[in-house]
Amino acid sequence: MGFVLLGIAAYNSLGLSGAMLQMVSHGLIAAALFFLCGVAYDRTHTLKMEKMSGLAKQMPIAFALFTAASMASLALPGMSGFVSELAIFVGFATDTAYSYGFRVVVVLLAAVGLVLTPMYMLSMLRRVFYGEKQLKLDGFDASPREVFITLCLLVPVIGIGVYPKLAMNLHDVKTERSPPVSSLPYRFWPSVSRAPCSPSSSPHRVLPKRISSRWIKSESPGSGWNSAPSLD
């Protein structure tokens, strides 16, 4: 989830959209991987990878689903992880709120995760599904119910990767339709209003009913405006 923090740190809409997509993508992919781990454990009754080699020949359907989920986890192009991480990196790299050197260092450090993820995911696939068969399975390949549950998690991953607006449009609708503060009833307003930072602030600003502020011009030169709260 470090990529999510990186996207939030980018003060632009592209980075925030990437962070939102990364959270959705991580939830779907992690759920699929954990579910398939449970499927493999239900057949092998062990969690040691060195004892699970050769499962690809005995469980070809589970192997295909596990490979698809692993490819999605390492941000393969065409899946949601690739779109979200690309938006995060581009959003942070193009943000002018930070210096150029700082952006380069952060992007290079974050890119280390892009290198490590394929290393351990592909190594896991090689140790678990390839090699000589060592275990006699307690059951058959993935059942239709297990395949259906896994596809319910992987199909949105592929759909978002091909057409990211499936998720981004929902995010835009939720934020754009938020009601303005001025339209909310008084019970949702803060109890104390915030003082304007300069005399140019609008004098017609609506304040809560119970507490308001009276603006007094100080007699001493250069002292600016002072506020004295008073009850209505």
What do these coordinates show?
This protein is mainly α and 232 residues long. The chain contains 8 helices and 2 strands. It has helices spanning 2-9, 13-44, 55-58, 60-73, 80-93, 100-129, 144-162, 165-176, and strands at residues 211-217, 225-231. β1 (211-217) and β2 form a beta hairpin. α2 packs antiparallel against α7. The model is unreliable at 186-195 and 199-232 (pLDDT under 50).
What key attributes describe this structure?
two-stranded antiparallel sheet, mainly alpha, disordered C terminus, elongated, single chain, 232 residues
Number of helices: 8
Shape: elongated
Secondary structure: helix percent? 55-70%
Q: Please state how the strands of the largest beta sheet are arranged side by side.
A: 1-2
Number of strands: 2
Q: Mean pLDDT, as a whole number?
A: 78
How would a crystallographer describe the biggest sheet?
A: 2 strands, antiparallel
N-to-C order of helices and strands? HHHHHHHHEE
Kindly report how far apart the N and C termini lie: 49 Å
Radius of gyration over alpha carbons? 27 Å
As residue ranges, the low-confidence spans are 186-195, 199-232
**SSE-based structural type:** mainly alpha
The fraction of residues assigned to DSSP E strands is: 5-15%
List the helices and strands and how they pair.
Blueprint: H1 2-9, H2 13-44, H3 55-58, H4 60-73, H5 80-93, H6 100-129, H7 144-162, H8 165-176, E1 211-217, E2 225-231
Antiparallel strand pairs: 1-2
